[in-house]
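Q: What changes when fe (ii) ion is included in the input?
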Amino acid sequence: MAKPKKASKSSKEAAVPASAQPSLSVSWPAFKPELPVVDLDIQLHPATPKIALISSFFPRSLCREYVAFLKTLPLQTTPARPKRGEAVRVNDRFQIDDPMLAARLWENTGLREAILENQDLKHLWGGEPIGLNPNIRVYRYTKGQYFDCHYDDSNALILPSQPPVPVKTTWTCLLYLTSSAEGCIGGETVFYPHDRKSAAEEIAVPLETGALLLHKHGNDCLLHEGREVLDGEKWILRTDLCIKR
Ligand SMILES: O=C(O)CCC(=O)C(=O)O
Ligand SMILES: [Fe+2]
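A: The predicted holo structure follows.
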């Protein structure tokens, strides 16, 4: 197999990535019913402490509302040919720098408490968690679309709070908004713990509507892919966990 690629090239020290669409402001749907609807429980994957899952992070009704809303955004289909050094990603994407949404996902969902109050998992985050990456990415994968094997980078940025806080990202956060419950077949996020694409060693995380998948990134990132969607639509929202630096 060819050498796995980085997910994307982004500035190592940037408050707003050049590739974001900064001029646009988005009125995201409110978190209704008020979140969390259940006590958030962070479950480490039985095969590795580099993957964790929070089920029912969003209730199914809110996922449905988000998908209906996200469909109205100007998603861009990936160029067929990736830039040199980038992984092949075939999907439709919307990216925005939105500190307000990042703060709401951290403060108004129960995520902050779930992470900060879990003493058993404290050593995993790489430092003191302080928020989420304002760089929000929305992906839609339709039939035949996928994200080939790659590693996610850690990025250094400044959270635009009062006062601004220098942080670095340590874990990728993927919010699954659809699954087989909505008719999406395939699209699992698959990890390869030994840096090679081997079916025998794969850790496949199936889509689960409303679940938040967290996986360690940067130097500790597992090789991973978004497997091809065979039917229906896979919708995810991506941000990253930020620690103080
Ligand atoms: O779509 C997926 O399941 C994986 C997405 C991913 O790897 C990424 O956004 O870096
Ligand atoms: Fe990734």
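Observations recorded in class: Confidence is low (pLDDT under 50) at residues 9-19.
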